[in-house]
Amino acid sequence: MKLRSAALAAAMALTGATAQADVKVGMITTLSGGGAGLGIDVRDGFMLAVKQAGRDDLDVVIEDDQRKPDIAVQLADKMIQSEKVDVLTGIIWSNLAMAVVPAATAQGKFYLSPNAGPSPLAGKGCHENYFNVAWQNDNLHEAAGAYANDAGLKDSFILAPNYPAGKDALTGYKRFFEGDLSGELYTKLGQTDYAAEIAQIRASGADSVYFFLPGGMGISFLKQYAASGVDLPLVGPAFSFDQGILQAVGDAAMGVKNTSQWNKDIDNATNAAFVDTFQAEYGRLPSLYASQGFDTANLLISAMVKADVADADAFRAALKAAEFDSVRGDFAFGDNHHPVQDIYVREVIKEGDVYTNKIIATGLSNHADAYAVDCKM
Amino acid sequence: MTDVVLRTERLFKNFGALKATNNVSLDLRKGEIHALIGPNGAGKSTLIQQITGHLASDSGTVCLMDEDLISVGPAERARKGLGRTFQISSLAMEHTVLQNAVLGALGQRGNVMSFFKPVMKDAQLVSAAKAALAQVGLAEFAATRTADLSHGQRRQLEVAVALTLKPKAFLMDEPMAGLGLEGAQQMIGLLTDLRKEAPILLIEHDMDAVFALADRISVLVYGEVIATGTPEEIKVNPEIRRAYLGDEVPA
Amino acid sequence: MKRETWINGAALAVLLGVPLWAVMADEPFIITLATRAAIFALAGVGLNLALGTGGLVSLGHAAFFGIGGYAMGILASHAQSYAPIMEAPFLIEGTKSMPVIWLVAMVTSALVALVIGMLSLRTSGVYFIMITLAFGQMIYYFAISWPAYGGEDGLSIYVRNGFPGLNTLVPLQFFGLCFAILCLALVLMNAIHKSAFGLALSAARQNETRVLSVGMKPYHLRLVAFVISGAVTGLAGALFADLNRFVSPTMLSWQMSGEIIIFIIIGGVGRLFGPVIGAMIFILLEHTLGGLSEFWHVYLGALLLGIVLFAKGGVIGALAGREKAHD
Amino acid sequence: MTTLLFIEQMLNGLQFGVMLFLMSAGLTLVFGVMGLINLAHGSLYMVGAFAAAAVAAATGSFVLALMASLAAAALAGALIELTIIRRLYDRDHLDQVLATFALILIFSEGTRWMFGSFPLFLDVPSVLAGPVTLPGGIQYPAYRLSIIVIGLVVAAGMFGLINRTRIGIRIRAGEADREMIAALGVDIAKLYTFVFALGAALAGFAGALVGAIQSVQVGMGEPVLILAFVVIVIGGIGSIKGAFVGALLVGFTDTMGRVLLPQVFGLFLEPSAAVSVGSALASMLIYILMAGVLVFRPRGLYGVA
User: Fold this and answer.
1) Three-point CA angle B88, B92, B96, nearest 5°
2) Which residue in A257, A279, B81, D302 is a FRET match for A213, CA 20 to 30 A apart?
3) Which residues have CB under 8 Å from C212's CB, separation 6+?
4) How confident is the model at residue D175 (pLDDT cuts 50, 70, 90)?
């Protein structure tokens, strides 16, 4: 699928020689198959910002990676070689980002990550052309660990799927959590039945449960946990409590605390306008991913205002300054081009018939990631 | 007993309660055709399968030239010199007639793990295969796809493939079934000469053919050999007349 | 000359001609697509020996494709970081040399194919399909949860590996390399097909009893075919990883095994060039249909269905009629 | 591990096994009678779950939702049998694998086109929400207990259908010899459509039952499909009894593997490595089981040679 937001070359000619060259953006994201919901949200958020900016020198090409790393690599090659894009963005999953980003930045392209933040790209593998507009993968889990301390939890049972992001998640939680761990479990990726794990949780004597189970895994776990009668407080990252999937979990998610760098009730004008216009445009509440897509586009546009993309150093500096109105309020990049931001604690509530979140606390303030020290840029 | 080529001793095979092969001991001697007859379901094909190793025996031995083969599989037994034709044609149907014969010659030579030389240009194999085809009268059909052969021609090809193996003993399961009068005559002529190359253990329903060809006959009833003898002895044996020949049904 | 030979020649000409045209039209991405097609074709050519000639429907060939990929990934990542793979009992270092990587990829895939084959070939029919799937899944889950080489995130290589005398970073040169290997594999497979081994293997597919009765063991024939097949698919995996400069467990997934089978069926089972034509068509479809609609899988599915139901013998079968590849 | 926890885990294994049986009964039936490998079985499972979720959302009734799942899956099954599947009975397994693989693509994206990319909501009925206390003090979710009961009832029903009824006799005859049954004057085409629809209905029913405690989303069928294949291959393809035994075996192996392996490795590895290695092995365990069974019994536990 291809969308071109910009005017035609003929129109450009009429306005005379613009001072700057067009910026061409290649968005590679997941639009079909399982997990398409996330990519669609990122795309919609991004395109909303593009539309609002109304710039005719911004050209966006969108392609579906089917959540397959080799397709993503192929699309990146295509965008760099044939479409001659200046900036790449859109990838949802860490494993796809690991496949695309190093090669793209090595070829001098900018990459703006609207979702994935694998640790190698924040640490030893950081690159001056790679900017993460969402979070480093560990961030939300670290905030959850910090929140657990604040909430007086002393003994957690933690679980995640057995793959790198799952291990990062539990590492992130443990980095900040000061209590004991009664249990630490890695489940099979894609597992749908958690009866055995829940029985172990019940028997463990823990006073809280931290889990990272993205997508359908989280839905299954939450439903089964609610039916099991185990009533230990649950804490998780925002991914299992997002607008897109909360409705599928239903009552089972009520009251659960989760950590996020964004929520629709963050009090600033940009955010309020974003939530309203997104709803008006697409007929649904924006999700975390939509907010990240929106911020990513606005970051890009802020850099376009200040510098010509042909001048890579100037453009990079403009991106690094991050002078745009983020829906999160304050937003800044650390030295490794990953966000330094507040991460909030949210609680799942019901507004009318719709399940959603409200912010109840701040988990970590002005938080950067643990890998920045390894980044030599 | 130096002229015994193939010998079974006390072979047994049960399928559940059914005694398919019950204490069968028989031998096949140099230069002879030994026919195995018996009513349908007497266990003739089961016995052949046990001898060739396609079916495992419950107990007993199968000896070829005094070598006990009971513990080895069908491929091994074929390599040791048991050449077999099937009741229902068992050929590579997509291959040509010549290819099937070359396959036999290849089996006789042994080294199948050759990956680069075109096998159909191997003069030695092809001439052996062609000789066998000529012997059964299929020379002109060498390039025909096996699936396009008539029923009788497939029978002939079965025999040709067995020939390429240069076996020490032939085991033939109804080679004349469905051949028609002329075909049967041809086959009888072929087998008559063939016994000089290697003895033949023959299963056949066509009693005329059996009595024309066989040097000795064994009668199998309910898995048991009830008599062995020359055609003349068998013809006059009253027990056999009662048990078998009396209610003979054409196959 | 037979019609199929003309079709085969045309397929090769197109596969070679498109990238040459792309260079002149300055469409480097088309070269990447052609390279991808050549590599998928190679993987299919490998599987086709087991599947087409040997009648072994392996739903686990992604295992070899992925192992080849990881051979490249592991060797190159160690070379990249100057960390030896192992020091005791003897030193093994990484490498960025393609020929060495290919050799390791083929030997490793062959060894794994030997083990999987020895166990799987005790079964037949549906059970064989399923046991190969099971082995594939085992290796897939192992790769996902094995942290040393990136787990599900996979392994990235920053620069493509080298081949003496070539600049592999130039798309056309890398394509040329893959194309040459594909041609070599086709020549090899053609020779095998016509050899004593090929005759016996194909006979074992048609009639197992016949092969036994001439003193050959179908098990051994199939095992050798499976090992060769695994090694060729493994080589394709190493090339594929080099094309993407990336390897991940996706290469080991059962969907990948399914795709390799699809190449063969689209082109024509047991035809020498079946996988080549199949892979070219698949890439073309993926590229054009993907641009038409978000729901392009529906069209892909319908098309596959049509080929299976109405074009028996694949595209080559439809074009060349019932002439068989055997002679 | 305490005895009580061990018993609870055994119960979980049983429950998972019964769930697997529900998923695989239809698959093995279709293979046994028609000799068809149906990769699209997981798609019918998904169709059932989506139909249930849609009806539950519209009516609020779980019973109606279950009925809808049966009807929708049976209808979808009958439809594809009449249009596509029946052309595949005489084909080799390769064609069947590919054609039904194509059906997966069509079903998945078709469902996404109709219902969107976000998971749907389907909850357990309120009567069965929450846990019940079993003798010995084990707290166990009421809904999972119901799944065990329903699964056992379905298993009994399947055995009854195959062994006791006229249609069962025909099905068994069809397994044994297609020509014979045709000679008996049974309309074999109708019988096949019926069997396929029955298998589909079972899959859809399982989808709805399981969907209530899992996630109803596009792609939910594929992992189930692979598990179901593991089950029926272990049991011996075509055998309902084999599917039942295979399902329980896989259920117990998987559950106990997940629980015990990390602990076993904990005896001689440091904790984090033990968890990691144990979990990795646990996720491979059922495939190891399947390969092991096939190496020793190449046609599964109850397969006919």
Assistant:
1) 120
2) A279
3) B54, B73, B74, B75, B78, C218
4) low
For residue C315, give the CATH number of its domain.
1.10.3470
- Nearest beta carbon to residue C192 from set B91, B93, B115: B115
Q: The domain that contains A116 carries what CATH number? A: 3.40.50.2300
Mean pLDDT of chain A: 89
Residues constituting chain A: 377
Residue of A81, A95, A186 with shortest CB distance to C152: A95
The DSSP secondary-structure symbol of C294 reads T
Query: Is the same domain home to B160 and B198?
Result: no
- In angstroms, rounded to a whole number, what is the distance separating the alpha carbons of residues C38 and A368? 45
Which residue segment(s) compose the domain that B19 sits in?
1-81+167-251
Considering Cα of B99, then B100, then B105, then B110, what sign does the dihedral take? positive
A39 contacts: CB under 8 Å, gap ≥ 6: A29, A30, A31, A64, A65, A90, A92
Whole-number Å distance between alpha carbons of D167 and D171: 6
The tokens for B141 are 């059909």
Section C289-299 average pLDDT: 77
For residues A329 and A351, membership in a common domain is answered with no
* Helix D221-235, helix D93-115: angle, nearest 10: 150
Is pLDDT at A52 greater than 90 in this prediction?
A: yes
Rounded-to-integer distance, Cα B25 and Cα D266, Å: 62
Cβ contacts of D147 within 8 Å, gap of 6 or more:
D15, D18, D19, D22, D209, D210
Residues B190 and B205 occupy one common structural domain: yes
Cβ separation D279–A223 shorter than 8 A: no
- Say how far apart CA C278 and CA C40 lie, in whole Å: 9
Provide the edge-to-edge strand list for the sheet that holds A58-64.
A58-64, A23-29, A87-89, A110-113, A130-132
Does A164 sit behind a cis peptide bond, omega within 30 degrees of 0 on the bond before it? no
Q: Tell me the C-alpha to C-alpha distance, in Å, between residue B138 and each of A341, B154, B172, D147.
A: 87, 10, 18, 67
Query: Are the Cβ atoms of D294 and C130 closer than 8 angstroms?
Result: yes
Domain limits at A310? 9-135+266-337
Q: Tokens 């004991």 label which residue?
A: A180
Question: In chain A, which residues have their Cβ closer than 8 Å to the Cβ of D1?
Answer: 203
pLDDT value at position D193?
92
Amino acid C327: pLDDT: 40
A25 backbone φψ class: left, alpha, beta (φ>0; ψ -120 to 50):
beta
pLDDT of residue A9: 41
Hey, what are B72's tokens? 């080895």
Tell me the per-residue pLDDT of D276-301, one tens digit each, with 9 for 90 and over: 888 888 889 999 999 889 888 888 89
Confidence at residue A15, expressed as pLDDT on a 0 to 100 scale:
43
DSSP structural state of residue C253: S
C177 in contact with chain D, both atoms CB, cutoff 8 A: no
pLDDT digits (tens, 9 = 90+) for D244-272: 999 999 999 999 998 899 888 888 888 77
> Are residue B125 and residue B173 in the same domain, yes or no?
no
Q: Which residues contact C312 (CB under 8 A, 6 or more apart)?
A: none
> Quick check: is A2 in a domain?
no
Q: Are residues A36 and A58 in the same domain?
A: yes
Helix (H, G, I), strand (E, B) or coil at A201: helix
Rounded Cα distance between C162 and C155, Å, is 18
pTM for the full model? Answer: 0.87
What domain count does chain D have? 1
Contacts of D279 in chain C (CB under 8 A): 145
- Nearest residue in chain A measured CA to CA from D252: A196
